[in-house]
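Hi all, a correction to my earlier message: I attached the wrong file for Cytochrome b/b6 domain-containing protein. Here's the right sequence:
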Amino acid sequence: MAFRSQVSFTMPQRIIHWSMALLIFFNLLFPYGMEHAYRLMRRGETLTPDQISSANIHAYVGFAILLLAVLRLCLRFFQGVPTHPAEEPRVSQIAAKVAHFTFYVLFFILPLSGIAAYYFGIATAGELHSGPFKAVMWVLIAGHVAAVLVHQLYWRTNILKRMTHG
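and the right structure:
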């Protein structure tokens, strides 16, 4: 059974959280090199070295996200996570569990669908990757930020401290 801290996430959990956040934002905000290269590949065109490099940056960031997701899941299993603040309503606790579960699914399914599309040419995987999977990730991020703001400003639980400096 995993240890459950009452106060904060561990330092490795915080480092992985923020590293993944940066990498995910990078790939969400700058997908154009990969999208352009993928369109050219689907039409059977030859990519220039610059186009390949641009696509590979997106792919390698995706591989890093996948690796960090594995580490993050292991840490979650072995070190646990802080309990929900007492001020948080039960319905919000359930919503948080559903959102975090969905985040973890996307941490794996986004990189894996990208790998399937780019390296194996599976068109459906590419469509899901750049369509609904990406859209759900954006919605989750917006909801996550909104939930943190509610905790900080309305319930005043100072929940952000658990993921910043313990």
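Sorry for the mix-up. The chain has one domain: 11-164.
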